[in-house]
Design brief:
Distance between the termini: 56 Å
Mean pLDDT: 95
Number of strands: 16
Oligomer: single chain
Number of helices: 15
Bound molecules: adenosine-5'-diphosphate, magnesium ion
Radius of gyration: 31 Å
Length: 484
């Protein structure tokens, strides 16, 4: 693996990155109230007295959110803590009616784990997970709805978030991108977060520092709330370059919170550690410690879906396809299921080739997704069957496939309607070969005087005369025989 470095005036620099990912939990209701956790709705439609911070309202833990956190922890191959606690993180902001956020500070529900990432050059690397904890989201302040006032929408207030903290194991923008995509893939497989960064249901705080090779870590800066994989990668590079300049000019990087501005491609200071918040964390007095049973964890584990790494390995072993192809096919659950429906009981390699080749190309061209594709897994499977039982040849199969994309018809229907069955009648093939050779006597003479290359020409002409429907092996044989 090539190490990613940046050249400065004083030498070569390495970057060090750790990510804190906020992932919104998929659940019907909020972390501590029965209000709906669905995205959207009219402002303040999904707000209970608990979410609005009314006096005397008490939080009640939502077991499904806890289960989602445990599932995610298991997906990250992490330690599940049977006892965890909630704390109050105090700060004042208009979208936080209680004046504090309930979060897990000292004792998170999930401890250390590990995530495998794959880089462009095929290298596999493991990124450590420090912890995953549960916390509430805040509401939303809007400053563009009224000329003189800010308004607050508390629909999001109290929705469950998982904060997934990585070790500072990431060493390049590429690794950060691969890590983020992998986390997104895992939570989507698990059904614990929809991973939609554009809608804000997954966002990352990016910690960046730089150092000379072999040095201990230097001071980091934290870039808040970056909301796309691409921006995370750009922000890391921009921030690393800024820090290198600071160090090389004899200055010192100060630990601070920064914001990334995608339009300028730079980070700027938001608040320094000196005026950083003192959150006055203390144990949440309204909630008991969260105690879960190992048997319940085991139950959740037994019901986990097969995860992308395991599925990829199984696809390679079971269907004999290359590791790379398997990676493409397990990118998401829908693609993996589609592949498996087509491949089951058939030639797995041929299925993989058709899906990653013609099928994906057709989706690209038509802007369809697997769900809206006119070609179903059953239809593509039938096409492979028609090739396997030699009803059609590979060449005609391409035409049949295009027709399937256009009309959504089943391949067997298309073959019958258009009379595309492969011709295996050797009499008909011989007849076509005789005619082609008779029409091209000059070329036959050239062939006989040693121009071997012309063999392909004759086969092509025969196929053309038979509208592509000749059985390729039989045509080859017949041409060879008649040329003597
Ligand atoms: P805090 O509690 O102040 O947020 P943490 O120790 O929890 O600090 O670290 C937060 C994140 O910063 C983690 O993802 C961690 O991997 C990352 N991190 C820690 N030290 C460094 C460093 N020197 N350079 C880059 N990232 C770092
Ligand atoms: Mg932090």
């Amino acid at each position: 693996m090539a190490t990613y470095t940046l050249e400065g005036r004083t030498g070569t620099w390495e970057i060090v990155v750790g990510l804190e990912i906020h992932a919104q939990v998929i659940s019907e209701s909020k972390l501590f109230s029965g209000a709906s956790a669905t995205y959207g709705g009219a402002p303040n439609d999904h707000v209970s007295f608990v979410d609005a911070g009314f006096p005397g309202m008490l939080p009640v833990i939502n077991a499904e959110c806890v289960a989602q956190a445990v599932r995610t922890g298991l997906g990250l191959k992490a330690q599940i803590n049977l006892e965890s606690r909630f704390d109050r993180k105090n700060y004042f902001y208009a979208d936080l009616p209680n004046g504090y956020q309930i979060s897990q500070f000292q004792m998170p529900i999930v401890g250390t784990g590990t995530v495998e990432i794959e880089l462009q050059d095929g290298t596999i690397k493991h990124i450590g997970i420090t912890r995953l904890h549960l916390e509430q989201d805040a509401g939303k302040s809007m400053h563009d709805q009224h000329p003189a006032k800010s308004v607050i929408d508390l629909n999001r207030a109290g929705v469950a978030l998982m904060e997934i903290v990585s070790e500072p194991d990431i060493r390049s923008p590429e690794e950060a991108g691969a890590y983020l995509r992998k986390i997104r893939q895992i939570v989507r497989y698990l059904g614990t977060c929809d991973g939609n960064m554009e809608e804000g249901s997954m966002r990352a705080d990016v910690n960046v520092s730089v150092r000379k090779a072999g040095e201990p870590f230097r001071t980091r800066c934290e870039i808040k709330n970056v909301n796309s994989v691409r921006f995370v990668m750009h922000a890391i590079e921009a921030e690393a370059i800024r820090q290198i300049e600071v160090w090389e000019q004899g200055g010192e990087v100060v630990q601070e919170t920064r914001l990334y501005d995608p339009s300028k491609g730079e980070t700027r200071s938001m608040r320094s550690k000196e005026d950083a918040h003192d959150y006055r964390y203390f144990p949440e007095p309204d909630l008991l410690p969260l105690i879960i049973e190992q048997s319940w964890v085991d139950e959740l584990k037994a019901k986990l879906p097969e995860l992308p790494d395991e599925k990829r390995a199984r696809f390679c072993a079971e269907y004999g396809i290359p590791f790379y192809d398997a990676g493409v096919l397990v990118a998401d659950q829908t693609t993996a299921d589609f592949y498996e429906t087509v491949a089951k009981g058939r030639d797995g390699k041929l299925a993989a080739n058709w899906i990653t080749g013609d099928f994906f190309a057709a989706l690209n061209r038509t802007g369809a997704s697997i769900e809206t594709s006119p070609v179903s897994a059953a239809a593509l499977g039938q096409l492979l069957d028609l090739i396997a039982d030699k009803t059609i040849n590979g060449r005609i199969a391409k035409d049949v496939f295009e027709e399937m994309v256009e009309t959504g018809a089943m391949p067997a229907e298309i073959v019958e309607k258009k009379g595309l069955r492969q011709v295996t009648d050797t009499g008909a093939i011989d007849e076509a070969v005789t005619k082609v050779l008779a029409d091209n006597q000059d070329k036959v003479a050239e062939y006989k005087s040693g121009k071997d290359k012309l063999f392909g020409f004759f086969v092509g002409q025969v196929m053309k005369a038979m509208q592509g429907k000749g059985n390729p092996a039989l045509v080859n044989e017949a041409v060879k025989k008649q040329l003597g």
